[in-house]
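Recap slide: DUF3581 family protein, sequence and predicted structure.
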Amino acid sequence: MFLDEFHTLAGDRITISAEQASRFAKGVAGDYNPIHNPEARRFCVPGDLLFALVLARFGLSQRMEFRFLNMVGDGTPLGFQEGGDGLIRVCDEAGKCYLEVSRGGATTHDEAVVEAFTRCYVSFSGKNFPHYLKPLMEEQGVMFNPRRPLVIYDSMGFCLERLEGLAPSLELLDSSLEVNGKRGDTLLEFSIQSGDEQVGTGSKKLVVSGLCDYDAEAMDEIVAEFYRLKAAYEA
């Protein structure tokens, strides 16, 4: 399974090391957010890796909603369980919940379909910055603190018309940034295609913290650093 190298199974618990999380972020999602670097002071496991592990374990359903409640640190033992209320929860040994998932409709466990959907969503999702966020922040005249950029994955959901014969790809439909003081809520809406046919829609919400006035020079430096990290990793 393509996720095997990005987590470790110990009994009924899964752990994700900072190195595994960072490799997934860069190698699968194309995400160079410094918060996923192993040495980051506020390191956290990418939400997209938790998303991918849920699909691998529980399958792909036609309707799914993911709520990210807390950030997962290096090597935290996690349990992935479905409760009597039908919700899937990812929790640690103390009961702290990091992710809550609701679902409905039909479900497929076809590994090829699940992996294809996972890869196309994670690749889309990993383009948060600079692809989607920079134009929105520039338009609104705000940006995250360049010394401590913090973009938090809040939630995502999608609805698929069918699961059979999926060859999925995602396309951005619309994006918006709502500013409320030092906080910004970003909504990315997407279509899910299979060939030339639209087979579903979805959306992803991000929270940008510590907003300040937009500084073009500082933003150019952050974008340059993003592409420097990308080139160094790919080399």
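The mean pLDDT is 93.
The chain has one domain: 8-234.
(End of recap.)
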